[in-house]
Amino acid sequence: MRSRLVIPNIGRLDQLIRILLSLGMIYLGFLDKRLIPDPVSGFVLGVFGVINLIVAFVRFCPLYALTGINTCTTRRD
Predict the structure, then answer these.
(1) Residue 2 located in a structural domain
(2) How far apart are the first and last CA of the chain?
(3) pTM of the predicted protein model
(4) Poorest-confidence range of 2-11, 13-22, 37-46, 47-56?
(5) Residue 18 forms part of a structural domain
(6) Number of independent structural domains in the chain
(7) Dihedral angle at the C-alpha atoms of 7, 18, 74, 67, nearest 10 degrees?
């Protein structure tokens, strides 16, 4: 029996969507200043993108855990 520190609650499709949205937010927040010229708003969007990207790779969302949402369909041991 494998013990895990955190049980994943993000499925593969959810993970893929989060990664794509995160990369878009990071691009718009930190790299492309044409759509969001305000530096504070761009920075906030970029930070949300980085946090969401980390959540996607870890496959554990604290907000999902609080609300009881689980999109992960893998078998738990």
Answers:
(1) no
(2) 7
(3) 0.83
(4) 2-11
(5) yes
(6) 1
(7) 50
Domain residue limits at 46: 12-67
Please state, in angstroms and rounded to a whole number, the distance separating the CA atoms of residues 5 and 56. Answer: 16
Tens digits of residue pLDDT in 14-25: 999 999 999 999
Q: Measure the CA–CA gap between 65 and 26, rounded to whole angstroms.
A: 25
DSSP one-letter string for 23-43: HHHHIIIII-TTT---HHHHH
Is 41 a member of any domain? yes
Please say if the pLDDT value at position 77 is more than 60.
no
In angstroms, the Cα distances linking 34 to 8, 24, 31 are 37, 14, 9
30 belongs to a structural domain? yes
